[in-house]
């Protein structure tokens, strides 16, 4: 028990309630192995002891799975360092990761004016509110899976990247919302495949902005989204394997041409899904 008591006391002082804290401290601090892309929009895959509490920059963000796996995402605008800390039955371990800045496509343009829209009808406003709720619910899903540990594949055979992750227009000095996906141009009807296993948490046609939209939970709240689909081939609640067709490329919703807008989000943080392609978890 040497040296473990102060760690647990510190955890208790920080207001952490956990079954671990009522059991006597024992053994060595937990293992903490990380791999990933430590940059804005990137991620870390972690291994520690099963059920350990996982903290990012002092905030509890998740718990390790039954096998000790966990996921951490770094937002588009993440700060230049991140502290990952795990607290297990025997104590705690932490690592400080330098987070590299990512270069985004920033366009400064002069507005053309006259963009003022009329007021939306009550029906349209109700429809928009319903869509916002459905998407927020899907992004909040936290399936007890660890498909994220097996690495991702590119979901579509694309011809070119028509818009990179994180790009932003600044119109007359006013920043517009950044592009939180990556746009992969491909002919209409090209199959879209799940990049890894998961469970479908949203499958809808005819959304105002996204058109045909599928969202998949890969575990630990890591959600990927597929926008503007011409066809949706899965149902909400359905489990999918990596490589399984979930829909087809289209230009539904607000899109100027056929492409797949691929998004990835983890607990409120927006990430570049292409960085997950070929990722390898720590052994
Ligand atoms: Zn997009």
Task: Tell me about this structure.
With 283 residues, the protein is mostly beta strands. 11% of the residues lie in helices and 37% in strands. The chain has helices at 5-13, 19-22, 122-139, and strands at residues 33-37, 43-47, 53-56, 59-63, 69-73, 81-88, 91-98, 106-109, 160-163, 168-171, 174-175, 181-185, 191-193, 198-207, 211-217, 222-229, 231-232, 239-240, 245-248, 259-266, 269-271. Strands 9, 12, 14, 15, 16, 18, 20 and 21 form an 8-stranded antiparallel beta sheet that branches. A 4-stranded antiparallel beta sheet has the order 4-3-6-7, covered by helices on one side. A hairpin with a 2-residue loop joins strand 6 (81-88) and strand 7 (91-98). Mean pLDDT is 90; it is low at 1-24. The site of zinc ion has 5 residues, from strand 12.
Short recap of the structure:
By secondary structure, the protein is mainly beta. The protein is built from three helices and 21 strands.
How many DSSP H or I helices? 3
The gyration radius over C-alpha positions equals 21 Å
Instruction: Determine the strand fraction and express it as a percent band.
Output: 35-45%
Hetero ligands: zinc ion
Q: Please, what is the average pLDDT?
A: 90
The low-confidence parts are 1-24
Topology as H/E string?
A: HHEEEEEEEEHEEEEEEEEEEEEE
Number of strands: 21
**Cα distance spanning the termini:** 28 Å
Biggest β-sheet description: 8 strands, antiparallel
As a percent range, the share of helical residues equals 10-25%
Output the structural class: mainly beta
Instruction: Give the overall shape.
Output: globular
Quaternary class: single chain
């Amino acid at each position: 028990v040497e040296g473990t008591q102060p760690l647990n006391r510190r955890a208790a002082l920080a207001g952490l309630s956990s079954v671990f804290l009522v059991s006597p401290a024992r053994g060595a601090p937990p293992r903490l192995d990380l791999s990933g892309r430590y940059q804005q929009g990137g991620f870390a895959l972690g291994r520690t002891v099963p059920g350990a509490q996982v903290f990012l920059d002092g905030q509890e963000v998740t718990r390790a799975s039954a096998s000790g796996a966990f996921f951490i995402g770094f937002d588009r605008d993440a700060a230049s360092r991140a502290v990952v800390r795990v607290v297990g039955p025997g104590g705690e371990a932490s690592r400080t990761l330098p987070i590299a800045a990512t270069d985004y496509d920033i366009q400064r343009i002069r507005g053309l004016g006259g963009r003022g829209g009329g007021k939306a009808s009550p029906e349209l406003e109700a429809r928009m509110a319903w869509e916002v709720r459905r998407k927020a619910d899907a992004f909040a899903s936290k399936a007890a899976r660890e498909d994220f540990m097996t690495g991702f594949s590119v979901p579509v055979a694309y011809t070119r990247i028509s818009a990179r992750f994180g790009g932003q227009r600044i119109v007359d000095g006013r920043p517009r919302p950044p592009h939180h996906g990556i746009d992969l141009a491909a002919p209409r009807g090209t199959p879209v495949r799940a990049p890894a296993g998961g469970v479908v948490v949203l499958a809808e046609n005819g959304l105002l902005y996204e058109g045909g939209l599928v969202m998949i939970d890969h575990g630990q709240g890591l959600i990927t989204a597929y926008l503007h689909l011409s066809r949706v081939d899965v149902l909400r609640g359905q489990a999918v394997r990596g490589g399984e067709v979930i829909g087809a490329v289209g230009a539904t919703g607000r899109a100027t041409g056929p492409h797949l807008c691929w998004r990835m989000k983890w607990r409120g943080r927006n990430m570049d899904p292409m960085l997950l392609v070929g990722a390898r978890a720590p052994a």
